[in-house]
Structure formats: C-alpha cells, structure tokens
Q: What sequence folds into this?
C-alpha cells in the first residue's frame, strides 16, 4: 500500500476511534450537558483536529517529496502553526465553563492530533532514509 494512503488511513482510524472513546467517556460521566453552555461541540473539535492534521500530513508529504532534508524544520513550523490555529479556534470558549470542560476536551483532541502528526512525520523521515 502506498505510504501516503496508509498515513491518511491511520489518521482517519485514529480520529474515529478517539472520537468514539471520547464520546463514551463524556456520556459515562454525564457531562454532555456542559456542551450546551458553549458554542462548541465534540464533533466540531474533532473536525478541526482532523482537518488540521490532514492539512499537516499533506504538507509533510509535499515537503518529503520536494525537500526531505528540511522535513524536521517544516514539521516544527507546522506544529507551531497548528498550536496558533488551535488557540484561535478555542479562544472564545476559554473560561466559559467553571470546571474547564472545554479546555480539557480541546487538549485531548489537540494531543491526539499531535500524536498522529508525529507518527506521520516519523514515517516520512524513515521513508526518506530508505530511499538513500
């Protein structure tokens, strides 16, 4: 299987499984009522995380193809841009719920996206080593 397709499939599977687990945990803790106090939703957070990780994966693939020796620097730049974009996305929801419900849920999604991005960059770096 093409390594790019495999990475996108891993991205999709990880986000789908994480969303299901996250939804079950929130339902089990009976905290789904906190979503009504904000303009955010769990689906929206996972959509943002998935789209930003998909964009980062495409840029990592392109960087691996065009300039593989700069892949590490490009990855760090992408992580910085994702952190800034994440703050812009979540800034209106900060401190809206007294128990940091939005902040904790967003951090879970952000770290899952970061984990997937690291996996994709690691795979791209190892693929570049195999070509040499």
A:
């Amino acid at each position: 299987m093409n390594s790019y397709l495999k990475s996108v499939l891993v991205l999709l599977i990880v986000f789908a499984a994480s969303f299901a687990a996250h939804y079950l945990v929130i339902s089990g803790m009976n905290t789904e009522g906190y979503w009504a106090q904000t303009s955010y939703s769990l689906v929206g957070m996972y959509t943002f995380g998935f789209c930003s990780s998909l964009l980062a994966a495409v840029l990592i693939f392109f960087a691996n193809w065009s300039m593989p020796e700069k892949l590490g620097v490009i990855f760090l730049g992408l992580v910085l841009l994702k952190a800034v974009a994440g703050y812009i996305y979540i800034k209106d929801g900060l401190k809206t719920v007294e128990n940091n419900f939005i902040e904790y849920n967003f951090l879970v999604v952000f770290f899952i996206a970061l984990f997937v991005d690291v996996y994709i960059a690691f795979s791209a770096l190892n693929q570049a080593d195999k070509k040499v």
The mean pLDDT is 90.
